[in-house]
Amino acid sequence: MKQKILILGAGRAATALIDYLLNEAAKNDWFVTVADFDEELAKEKVGHSGNGRAVQLNISNTKKRRELIQEADIVVSLLPVNLHYLVVKDCLTYKKHIVTASYLSQEMYGLDREARKAAIVMVGEMGLDPGIDHMSAMEKIDALRADNCKIIAFRSYTGGLVSKENLADNPWNYKFTWNPRNVVLAGQGTAQYISEGKYKYIPYNRVFQRLDEIRVDGIGKLEAYVNRDSLLYKTLYHLEDIPTLIRYTLRYPGYCRAWNALVKLGWTDDTYPIIDSELMTYRELLESYLRGVFKQYPAGYNLRNHLADFLRIDRSDPVIEKLEWLGIFEKTPIEVKNASPAVILQNLLQKKWKLQPDDKDLIVMQHQFDYEKNGKQFRLSSTMKMYGEDSVHTAMSKLVGLPIGIFVKLTLQDQLKLRGVHIPVIPEIYTPVLAELSELGVRFEDKVQELKAE
Amino acid sequence: MKQKILILGAGRAATALIDYLLNEAAKNDWFVTVADFDEELAKEKVGHSGNGRAVQLNISNTKKRRELIQEADIVVSLLPVNLHYLVVKDCLTYKKHIVTASYLSQEMYGLDREARKAAIVMVGEMGLDPGIDHMSAMEKIDALRADNCKIIAFRSYTGGLVSKENLADNPWNYKFTWNPRNVVLAGQGTAQYISEGKYKYIPYNRVFQRLDEIRVDGIGKLEAYVNRDSLLYKTLYHLEDIPTLIRYTLRYPGYCRAWNALVKLGWTDDTYPIIDSELMTYRELLESYLRGVFKQYPAGYNLRNHLADFLRIDRSDPVIEKLEWLGIFEKTPIEVKNASPAVILQNLLQKKWKLQPDDKDLIVMQHQFDYEKNGKQFRLSSTMKMYGEDSVHTAMSKLVGLPIGIFVKLTLQDQLKLRGVHIPVIPEIYTPVLAELSELGVRFEDKVQELKAE
Predict the structure, then answer these.
(1) Which of A193, A199, A289, A454 to substitute to test the interface with B, most B CBs within 10 Å?
(2) How far is Cα B62 from Cα B378, in angstroms, rounded to an integer?
(3) Res B293 pLDDT > 90
(4) Is cis: bond before B253, omega within 30 of 0?
C-alpha cells in the first residue's frame, strides 16, 4: 500500500518541506496531503504534482482532522505550538508517527512510554533553531568527547538576517524573516548563562548593551546579544560541568544599540494598552514618553534632539537616524486600537521591515567549542551560512523544512527505526540527517585554532 | 444592648486603632474584641482594658470566624487583601457593617445593592493611603468647585519616611515603615499620568530617574518619583477633564538615584530564582550581574570601581557609598534559598533598614491644586506631616487607624447613616472624619500663591 504523508500547515516555513517531500514522493511512490485553513495557499504550494493534494482543514474540526490523520503513516505539524497537542493525541490514538519543528513541552516528554507502546516516533525541535542547532552542536560535542577532548566552553550564535544587497536603504540592516512578535519581545525576562563556572544574569535593560561579536567569512563582523535560555542547554547537551555556556542571537552591527533605544523608551512593553492609541500619531506617542513636550513649540524646538537628550546620546548618533527612518517623528496615524506599545511598534516595523519579493534572507549559525587536549587549549569554530533565493524560497524555509523532510523520508524508508519521544540530540538522528543536509548544501565549515594563554 | 466592635488583625497598623476604640468604648459603653492568629499579640494590644478582649482566630476557621462576626455590630478588617472577601461575605450574611483600609476591588463595588438591602455600610480605603489622601483631596476639590475655581492641575505626594535624627548613620535616609515587599517592587509596571492634556508614560527603567521635588517646612527638600496609578484618580475624584494629574511617592534626596542603581543591576526582579542562592554570598551575586569578573583577581582590582563603571557613574559617586553600606560587596552568605533577586534584596534590606525601637517614623502628604479664578491662576498647597512616637506608636499606625476608628464611632453613634459600598471621597464621610482628625492633631496646612505666566 502507498505510504502517506500528512503536512498540517502550508505557511512560509512549509515551502521547502513540501517541495522536498513531493519530490521524494515521486521517487518512492508516496503520497503527500497538505492541509491548511487556507486551501488556496495549500494548492499553491502543492502545485501540479501528481503525488500530492491540497485540502482545507480547520484544525478544531475534530472529525476531519482525525480522518486525515488516520489515513496517514506520518504526520508533520507546522501548526502554532498551542495546537500541537490536539494532533499529538490523535497520533497516539491512531499510532501515527509525528514530527514538528517546535519546542517539546514537558507534557510531550511525558508521552514517551505511550509512544513506545504505540510503536511510533514523536520528534520535536526538528527544524532550524531548534533543530539544526541541536544536531550540528551534538555532532561536534560527541566527536570531541570521543577524541578525549575536554570541552571548557560552548558558545552558539544564530541569526536570521537578510542579504546585504537588499539592505541598501535600510539603516537598521534588518527585515523580518522570522516571527515579528518574537523579534519585538526578544530579550524580555532575564538572560542567564554560565561563564567560568559562575552563573551570570543580564536584566532586560542591559541585554542590548552587553554585546559580543563574531566574524563570518564573506559577511564580516556581526554583533551578538545573549539569549535568555542558555542554561537549559547544559542538561540537553549533557554539558553539566561545562564552565562556560552561552547562546546568542546575531544582528548586523548597529542594530542592538538602536533597538536598545526603543527598549529604553518603553516601546517593547506588551503589558498595558495605550489609551486611545487609534486616535494618535507616532509623533504623539513618542511625546507621551518624553518629558516636558510643549503645547506650543518654541522656535528652534526639535523633537529629534529632544529624544537624543532623553536617551543621553549624541544628537548626531546614528541611532537617531534609524529611529527617524522608522517614522516615529511623523504625524502618521497609529491606527491600531488600544494596543500595547509592543503591538504598535510591531505594526510599524512590519511596514518598514517587510521582506520584498526578491529579497534574499540569510541564516548564519556558528558554534564555538573551546577544549583542552594533551595540555593545550583549542577553539573549534563551526559555521553555516545560507542565503535564500527570494522571499518565498527562503533559507529559513529550507533550513526548517529540510531536516523535517529528511527525517520523514528516513522513517518511511525504515532507515530510522526510532520509537518514543525525541529531539535530535542523538546520533541515530543527527548522523543521517546532517549527512543528507550536507548533500543538499547545508554545510558547516570548521576551523581549529590553538588558544594561547594570555 | 452593648454595642460590639470586632477588629480582625492586631499587627503594626492596628495599634492606634485599638487604643482609640478602647478609649471610645470606655466612654460609650461599647465592647471591643481583637482577634488575631497570634493571641499574645492581640493580648498585648488590648492590655488591661475592661472594655476589650483578645481572642485567637485562624481566619479560615469558618465556624469561629462566623461566631465572632455574628456577635459584632461592626467589623474592622486589617487582614491581608486576599482574605477580606471571606469576611465581607459573612458581613453581608449577618448584616454587619464593615470597614477596611484596603483598596476596594471591582468585586466589592459589585456588592453595593446587596449591602443596601442588608442595610449595612461597607467602607474601604479608609486608612492613610488610600484613605486620608482621598478625604483631604476631595475636601479641597469640592471647596474649589463651590468657589467657582477651575482646577487645571492636581499633584499629590505621599511618603512614609523616618525622622532625620534617626538616620545619622544611614546614607539612604530610609528605613522600612510600610510593607517592605511593596518598597522593593515599587515602580514596576509603567507609571501613567496626564500632563497638559496628554497621557504620559514612564517605563520602569526611568521611574527613579524622572524625579520632581517639593519643599516642606521643617523638613526641607524631598524628592518625588511618579506612581504607576495616577490615571485611576481621574474618575475617582471626578476630575475627568483635568489637564494635569499626577501622584508621587516621596523620599529624602539621593534615595532614588541609588535605588535606580539596584533597578539597573536587575536586583528588583521578582520573576526568576537565583540558582543555589543559599550557597552564595552577596559579593558573588553581585559578580553574577557584572561582566568579566576574574577567577583570580588581578592586582589593584576593585569591585566597587567595577560596579561604578558598569553603572556608568563616577567612582566616587555617593551611590557607591550607599550600595557599599548595604553590604553588597561583602562575602556574607545570602542564606535564602532559590530566591528571586527581589526577595534576596528585601531580605538584606530588612536587616539594614530596620526601624529601631525608639525610631520615629514620619508621614508627609502634600496636595497641590493649580486653579483659575477670575482670569488668574493660583496654586493651593495643602500639607500634612506627622511624626511617630516610637516604632510601635508610629505615625503610620495613627494615620491608618484613626480614620477607621472615627468612622466606626460615627457609625455606632448613628451620626453616619450611610449604607452600601463606599470609599471616603464623599462629604458625608470626609467632613466629620477630617474634623475629628484635626482635633487629634492630623492637620493639613494650606498655602495659596498666585502663578504668574512665564
Answers:
(1) A199
(2) 55
(3) no
(4) no
Contact check, Cβ <8 Å, B198/A284: yes
pLDDT on residue A229 = 84
DSSP, res A441: T
What's chain B's length in residues? 454
Q: Which residue has the cell 542558555?
A: A230
* Among candidates A192, A200, A266 on the partner chain, residue whose Cβ is nearest the Cβ of B190: A266
Measure the CA–CA gap between A49 and A44, rounded to whole angstroms: 11
Residue A402 cell numbers, joined: 529540510
* A-B Cβ pairs (cutoff 8 Å, strict): 79
Q: Is the pLDDT of residue B395 over 80?
A: yes
Predicted confidence band of residue A30 (pLDDT cuts 50, 70, 90): very high
User: Cell 508516496 appears where?
Assistant: A30
Q: Read off the amino acid at residue A407.
A: F
Report which residue type is found at B430.
Answer: Y
For the stretch B319-369, pLDDT in tens is 999 999 999 999 999 999 999 999 999 999 999 999 999 999 999 999 999
Residue A375 amino acid letter:
G
CA of A266, closest CA in chain B: separation in Å?
5
Mutate to test the interface with A, among B201, B284, B290 (most CBs of A within 10 A): B201
Contacts of A293 in chain B (CB under 8 A): 198
3-state secondary structure of A400: helix
Give the residue from chain B lying closest to A269, CA to CA.
Answer: B203
Tell me the C-alpha distance between B170 and B353, whole Å: 8
Residue B14 has pLDDT above 70, yes or no: yes
d(CA B137, CA B154): 9
Chain A residues with CB under 8 Å of B240 CB are none
Beta carbons of B192 and A272 less than 8 Å apart: yes
pLDDT score for B81: 83
| 3-state DSSP assignment of residue A431 | helix
What is the DSSP pairing of strand A212-216 with strand A97-100? unpaired
Which residues in B420-453 are b (16+ Cβ under 10 Å) and which e? bbbbbbeeebbebbbebbeeeebebeeeeeeeee
| DSSP element (H, E) containing B273 | none
Among B345, B347, B380, CA closest to B151: B380
Cβ(A291)–Cβ(B210) below 8 Å: yes
Contact state of A205 with B266 under an 8 Å Cβ cutoff: yes
d(CA A309, CA A303): 10
Work out the pLDDT band at B270, boundaries 50, 70, 90. very high
Residues B21-42 have pLDDT tens digits of 999 999 999 999 999 999 999 9
Cα–Cα distance for residue pair A66/A395, rounded to 1 Å: 32
Query: Shortest Cα distance from A347 to chain B (angstroms)?
Result: 20
Given the C-alpha cell 548593551, which residue does it identify?
Answer: A209
B196, B210, B269 member nearest A190 (Cβ): B269
- Does the model's pTM come out above 0.90? no
